[in-house]
Amino acid sequence: MKPETVVIKPMPSRFKHKVPKYKVTRSDACINCGMCAKSCPYGVHERIEGHNKMRPPIDYKCIGYECRKNDEFYCVYKCPRKALSLSLNPMYETLGDCRWTSDMIIATWIMAETGYPPERTDIGYQTGNSDGGFDKLRLKFPVNPLKVERDEISTELRLNRRNDGRSNVVISTPMYGGGMSFGSVSLSTMLSKARNATIWNTFTCTGEGGYPEMLYPYDDHVITQVATGLFGVREETIQRVRIVEFKYAQGAKPGLGGHLLGEKNTESVARMREAVKGTSLFSPFPFHSVYSIEDHKKHIDWIKQMNPKALVSVKVSTPNDVDMVAVGSYYAGAHIIHIDGGYGGTGAAPDIAKKNIAMPIEYAIPKVHNFLKEEGARDAVTLIASGGIRTAHDLVKAICLGADGAVVGTAEMVALECVRCGNCESGRGCARGIASTDSELADLFDDEWATQRIVNLYHAWNYQLVEILQKFGMKSVSELVGRTDLLEHVDYS
Amino acid sequence: MNSADKILASRIPLCSNVPQLNQNTEEEGGCGVTGFISSIPVTGKNIFEPSVQMHNRGNGKGGGIAAVGFIPEALGVSRQILEEDYMLHIALLDESIAGELAETFILPFLTIDKSEKLARIDDYHNIGLEVKPPEIMRYFVRVKQDVLDSFIRDNKLESLDRRDAEDEFVYQNSFKINTKYYASLGDKKAFVMSHGRNMMILKIVGYAENVVKYYKLEDFKAHAWIAHQRYPTRGRVWHPGGCHPFSALNEALVHNGDFANYQSVCDYLKQRNYYPLFLTDTEEAALMLDLWSRVYKYPLEYLIEALAPTSEMDFDLLTPEKQAVYKAIQTHHVGSSPDGPWFFIIAKNDVQKNQLQLIGITDTAMLRPQVFALQEGEVQIGLICSEKQAIDATLISLEREDPRFRPIADKYWNARGGSYTDGGAFIFSLVDSGDGAGSKKLICTDKFGKVIATPKGKAICDTVKVPAIDEVANKEMYSWLQEQFTAIDGQGGWNIFTCVRDRLKTFSPESFQRCIETIMGLAQQSDEFRQVALDALTLLTDRRFDTGALKRSSVLHVLKINLDAILASMPAIAKNAGEHFCHIDFSTRADLRPPLKNEQTLVLDAEHFEAEGNLCDAILLVAAYKLGWKKFIIYKYRGQRFTGCGFGPKTQGIRINVYGSSGDYLASGIDGMEIHVHGNAQDQLCQIFKDGKLVVYGDVGQTFMYGAKGGAAYIMGNAAGRPLINAVGKPRVVINGTALDYLAESFMAGDPLNGGGFVVLNGIGFSDEDGSIMEYDSPYPGSNIFSLASGGAIYVRDPHKKLVDEQLNGGEYAEMTDADWNLILPYLHENEKLFGIALEDLLTVNLKKKEPREVYRKIRPKKAVVMDKNDSGLGEACSCK
Q1: Are B440 and B483 contained in the same domain?
Q2: Distance between CA atoms of B681 and B659, rounded to whole angstroms?
Q3: pLDDT digits 0-9 by tens, A257-280
Q4: Which end of chain A is more exposed for a tag (fewer CB within 10 A), N or C?
């Protein structure tokens, strides 16, 4: 069930024209008869009385080839002069990549705009084309599921399972926002993520770059990150929050630490991190105070000492022995184990790292889940997966594989109309003003717009999640955890 | 074939029987390790205390001890048998195979001089164990002559020393036992714990100290003991096969850390017919040690070099002859040098040289904590531990057994891994003293054989006997002291300090003790007197000066006893006395209440608090602060962590004084308060330090001020590895000693002349002989200073220009300007006030007073970022608000 604070409002693109999937071409043969404008129910064509020419077609409104079956209004057939033609938009073809296909990006935009999955059927958004990972997995729905009403279904997730007297944190939907530091993204971006987390009764994470004052009203829904550079980490920031996350490594670049290029280290970023403007900021790849499991426990004890109520989340990447790491973290006192697979990360991680180091998340999740079960620890710890959770379907697959929930990073950015150009590290050059602290670029959108877009996206995901649970005949998302029997691999089924 | 090849070749049939083993190691990261070696045999009780101290370094899923150098009578054998026989200790996980094992592997080949089942307590549940420890069979054995003859003949080992061949036979025989009853089975049945001469290893699933309890070793004596608390990552462990110590023959090794190149080391060993059977990197370490020392016969120095290669600038500073040898060693061992964080403690029976040894070796990058200590006198002891408080706990325990031991060591230090200075290893060797009575003497050397010793011929105060009193002198001292106590200028404490300091040269041990006890006695009279006494004894503890005929560690011991007594005598919190001081301890913690009128300082006896968690004293401190307490004295610390953490922002006006062995993460996160640590401090101090002041009257450990944002810190001694890494903002630090390596890596503390941060590194120490200030050979011996730094500066006292460009990686030397000097001057004044390290002395070089710019050098980031706002394009017209 969505919290009462969630209100869905349409929130259209901030650009005059969205990136269209199709290109509608009008030739010189057009006689400005207006037939197309009259027949198209989507408003692609516009004829203004008194003008001697039709307005150029508004491509992004077109539903494309599937319109062919609509004899009564398909403009290409309707046009008496055969002046109209339809093709895939070349701009569209340059959008996205095999993992984040152009369809998926467009669908995410639609979800962020409307709060629901796209009604159009010409957008294949449930899987990408990567030929691996979640894209090769499908859900196996039963033929006659138990009948469950939408409002009977719970999507809640309990984060503290240790019964240790610390905060009993429950989130309303089994996902929360990933850590993006101030510096890597703009303040508006951070703020809208935090506001969404509050509205959805879930969390967002500061990343490693300080805790901007503007987040204070949302303290109860912010995870403060303690990463290897300790940038912006103060006792005060640790005491503010209900969850503290240790970031040991990032799935996109395990073993590489963090690196904010000097280009992005602007005045306000430097102020927040108390460093020198314009210099590259390094986070070392390990915690230099943690070289072993007993150091790790000590590290967690320290956080617990500073904040006696907070839960501790441990974010690790997915090396081969990720199962051992997870179990070790559990014994060291962590409440949440957050495994970050190799598909995640924005553009700032080097390709060679993204593509070669960490274990794919779909292998890591069951490995950790099963090992925790063997150790008898699974029920006492919350397992969160991240790194390439692009859609509600990915979320469901991750849960079926053994996670309790997921962390969403890139999808939130796409909701803000990120085009996945992958130039995040250039920062000040982010064409969409998301991954930038440049004062002019960061003003490209306001918080209200951005918040609603993310709220809408979460709603669309939650909506799909409930729909899927319905199809499985389940009343709670917790029933789904570890149900690998509900998955099939397209190559081996 | 040479002898080594022959030995290794003789194992070929053996190795072919090893089953295919899992590729993975038994995962484990860390642990706590501790060990000591003493000139007299001491009981197993003494390894108990330090093991308990390091519970939080293990998780109770594995512990082990080793002991070397026994008393023959205690084992019921002759000295000859003890020294010449192998002591075979077999752990029987399944007792029913005992007979079969003996008939297959022992009786046919070995002469048994004595055999017994190790005594144990009846029920392991009674000491809280969950898994039954194995039954242990102990055999004193030699290889039968005819068996050995044919072994030599079959393997063409004639060129070998006969004893070496026998060693190899014993090794192979145990290997066969382990292959058959351990490695090849799903359900393990038995394995050899140790088979060396005059030594034993015992391990259990549980904390190490329970080994002592279970096998009734409380009163069993040995010269050297080591212990290991294991922290296996897996939750369920049912046998101690993977526990430390490990042994290949005459040594026992414990290890803290893990090898990143486990597989590569494994391959190296297998190529030499050493097959690890227990799947831990510790076993590998023991096997390598055996290969290099027993088979290849490396001298210890080369063996250490093979483990922890000398690198970077340290290598350049070796003599050309050493460089040539070391280069050959490094080239050969490129695949077998263990990579990753590790620290070894090895107890060894060096049968060749007839000596017992305790060795500590750290990896080149010094990634694990390590402390060495030495105490000399009538009896001598060398100690190696993960944490200093474990050393102190050992000494306290030993003192109870034999008052010739004292609770404070004469010397504590860290090793600098892979260095040209000490090689990152220290060896305590116990050799015959040559007095004809068989007594032993302890010699401590570093990797290069340089002897580490403490000043000789100094007297020790007898804290057990009541000192005889010279009535006249006593009366005079009493009246003088009383006068000081009533001095109204508030300088009483200082005056007493200076006077006692100056008189120390003439004091006898008795008169010194009497003097301090008189001060303690006078303290009982009033709040003011208590303050004066505390001031005086604290100054005497903190400062370095000539202790005359007395041993400094003994002086500190007397001061500690009396300081503790004064603090313990403060009115208990439940009394509601309303005086200046108020005492609380673990048993009275529930009485905590807000301060009453006049009450200023909460005195906390930390002894029985836990090191972390809800029963940690740090939690009580925060609670007391919330009730209105602002001043704290904490004493009898024994490693409790997180002092000062959790107070929250803006804690100006709070002051904490810390006595005893304080713990890790002290002052981490503090924002405004002031903490004084009277003595050495441990690791991870002042993480994310925001504001305030830390004073340490001693050394600090690893990653001091990691990610600090500001604050001022004054360190009287040295900092270990990686101080100030990733510090930003405006931290200002004076380190009077030096740092092991990686000082101020990724330092980003702005422009020091415009409110940024800096480190002053003085590179001085204190003479063990008379406490005077002395320059180190180099103010900074490490290879990496200020690496990748982008802001801040280091001001290093380097009058002889010892620092060179090779040590920098992104920094540059810059001229010391007047502005720089004016910046650091107030900090040096404060430094003088706190530690008595006079500015004048710092500026004096070879007895000549010099200009600051001749003495200090500045290191700043190479590309000093002096960017013009307009040029850089990084200015922001309207910063995000």
Answers
A1: no
A2: 10
A3: 777 777 778 888 888 888 878 887
A4: C
Question: Which one, of B89, B98, B112, lies nearest residue B249 by Cα?
Answer: B89
Q: Do B642 and A305 touch (CB under 8 A)?
A: yes
- Structural domain including B115 reads 3-17+28-452
3-state secondary structure B201-250: EEEECCCCHHHHHHCCCCCCEEEEEEEEEEEECCCCCCCHHHCCCECCCC
List CB contacts (< 8 A) between B27 and chain A: 321, 324, 328
Mind telling me how many Å the CA of A306 is from chain B's nearest CA?
4
Domain co-membership, B419 together with B501? no
Distance from CA of B746 to the nearest CA of A (A): 7
Domains of chain A: 22-93 (3.30.70.20), 138-489 (3.20.20.70)
Q: Considering just the CA atoms, what is the radius of gyration of chain A in Å?
A: 24
Q: 3-state class of B578 per DSSP?
A: coil
Question: How large is the average pLDDT for residues A448-457?
Answer: 96
A243 touches A336 (CB < 8 A): yes
Q: Is residue B669 part of a domain?
A: no
How far is residue B174's CA from residue A160's CA, in Å, rounded to a whole number?
49
- The C-alpha atoms of residue A424 and residue A426 are separated, in whole angstroms, by 5
Q: Nearest Cβ partner of A291 from B368, B751, B861?
A: B368
CA distance B431 to B443: 8
Place of tokens 């879930």: A202
Q: pTM for this one? A: 0.91
- Residue that terminates a domain, selected from B452, B487, B511: B452
Task: List all residues 6 or more positions away from B630 whose beta carbon is below 8 Å from its beta carbon.
Answer: B600, B653, B654, B655
We report the CATH number of the domain holding residue B817 as: 2.160.20.60
**Pairwise CA distance, residues A399 & B205, whole Å:** 36
Tokens of A204: 């967002």
Residue B589 lies in a domain: no
SS3 B140: strand
Q: Which residues of chain B have pLDDT under 70?
A: 22-30, 233-236, 467-469, 863-881
Residue ending a domain, choose from B403, B422, B452: B452
Q: DSSP state, B635?
A: E
d(CA A413, CA A185): 10
Under an 8 A CB cutoff, do A277 and B746 touch?
Answer: no
pLDDT tens sequence across B133-191: 999 999 999 999 999 999 999 999 999 999 999 999 999 999 999 999 998 877 889 99
Contact list, B700 vs chain A (CB under 8 Å): none
Residues B438 and B486 in one domain: no
Please tell me the total number of residues recorded for chain A in this structure.
Answer: 493
DSSP state of B90: E
Among the listed residues B129, B723, B719, B231, the one whose alpha carbon sits nearest the alpha carbon of residue A298: B231
What pLDDT shows up at residue B878?
Answer: 39
For chain A, the distance separating the N- and C-terminal CA atoms, rounded to the nearest angstrom, is 33
Q: Which two tokens stand for residue A120?
A: 């159009």
Contacts of B230 in chain A (CB under 8 A): none
Residue B704 located in a structural domain: yes
Angle between helices B552-568 and B509-523 (to 10 degrees): 20
Beta-ladder partners of B132: none
CATH number, domain with residue B323:
3.60.20.10
Question: Are B703 and B683 contacting, i.e. CB atoms less than 8 angstroms apart?
Answer: yes
B95 and B152 assigned to the same domain: yes
Residues B379 and B475 in one domain: no
Are B711 and B844 in the same domain? Answer: yes
Spatial contact of B757 and B792, defined as CB atoms under 8 Å apart:
yes
On whether both B311 and B444 belong to a single domain, the answer is yes
- Distance from C-alpha of B355 to C-alpha of B459, rounded to nearest angstrom: 29
ipTM field:
0.88
Residues B446 and B488 in one domain: no
